[in-house]
Amino acid sequence: MHLRYSYRIYPTAGQRVSLARTFGCARVVYNDALAVRKEARKAGRPYPKSTDLQKAVIAAAKRAPERAWLASVGVDPLIQSLRDLDTAYRNFFDSVSGKRAGRLVGLPRFKSKRDSRQSLRFTRNGFRIWGNGKLNLAKIGDVRVKWSRALPADPSSVTIVLDPSGRYHASFVVDVAPDVLPEVDAEIGIDLGLTTYAVLSTGEVIDNPRFLRKAEKKLKAAQRELSRKAKGSKNRAKARIKVAKAHAKVVDTRMDWLHKQTTRIIRETQAVFLEDLNVRGLARGRLAKSVHDAGWSTFRRLLEEKVARYGRTVGIVHCAYPFSQLCSECGHHDGPKPLAVREWACGECGVLHDRDLNAARNILAAGQAKRPWGAGETRRGDPAPGAARRTGNPPRRPAVHGRPCRRRGRNPRSSGRGDVNRSSQPRRRRPVGPVRP
Description:
36% of the residues lie in helices and 18% in strands. The protein has helices at residues 13-42, 50-63, 75-97, 211-214, 216-227, 234-268, 279-282, 288-294, 296-310, 355-368; strands at residues 2-10, 118-123, 127-129, 135-137, 141-146, 157-162, 168-175, 187-192, 196-200, 205-207, 271-275, 313-317, 343-345, 352-354, 377-380, 399-400, 403-404. The strands form four sheets. It has a seven-stranded antiparallel sheet. A six-stranded mixed sheet has the order 10-9-8-11-12-15. A hairpin with a 2-residue loop joins β16 (399-400) and β17. α5 packs antiparallel against α6 (234-268) and α6 (234-268) crosses α9. 22% of the residues are buried.
């Protein structure tokens, strides 16, 4: 299996100039190749192949006076930018045809030098790690690396990333064997929330750290300072980096906490069961900031990645199951309850339930009912009987003459109940006052 190991690098001033030049050349090659393919599509011709694009936008472009500066950088990042374009087109076609799950992927777009994140990739021919720990990049030089841990094997490629806060990172791709942990008997169900981050079926409660909420005061001060700077000035650039560093600190703290929590859960349990939350839909409501701050999607993604590495199992139970309405003791369906109700007593057996703990136990029972699931596998459970399967895409709104209505289900040209026939209503015009000089 392939893993990524990311390390902080500290290039010198001259190396930063060389990296900036390489970033720009890779971006120009990507945009030139994308323009060639767009022109071919507009003319009705088939898409040019990668080898033809490489000859046109790299080899031939170096001999042209307006692109002669492409020869000042290594050829490896330029070729990898063309492969990134091929991957972007492949993801688009797979998404349209249904081979790729999840949200629909759009067509590739042109890159800008003002993008907050810049990256370029080197393969085995473009980089080397010396014995003194420095990373040698083609036509850039030896870069100092902060080795926080040793690489388990020789890397096959390295990606140099410049983040919005001005930090440089080297991300190595390493091929390693799965590290299967010894089996344990524990299996848990997890109910994710906002008041408490997670409640486990064993009764353990994980508090919500709320990293973004705690850092809001500093973020507001940095953003206020940025808004007062003149556009295009050097002080505004410094203030922008200050804001980016504040956000990067929140992101790094959250990722470190999520990694520690998911690793502990995977090591202590053999199977983990989660609810298939519609995070994308929840992030559109009034709790959007809290939902984004929680990072539920990242929590689930880390669990699924570590399952394949350590030989565990993750089960995703469909959200149509009424976890908060069923009694985990007798299975009685007690009906829906508002979110303000945190404890309730079963009307059949009289057991007093904590809302989140009862839901976690029901998630565990629903996940165990869908066996057998193999180790290192992630499976999605079936929906409850009579419930419609929810897809990753939002429902389409009704359209009038090709334009979607502002409100779902309110067609202005229909005469159904609750709709308004706008053609029969007098149009109110705004009174026009005297024009001020």
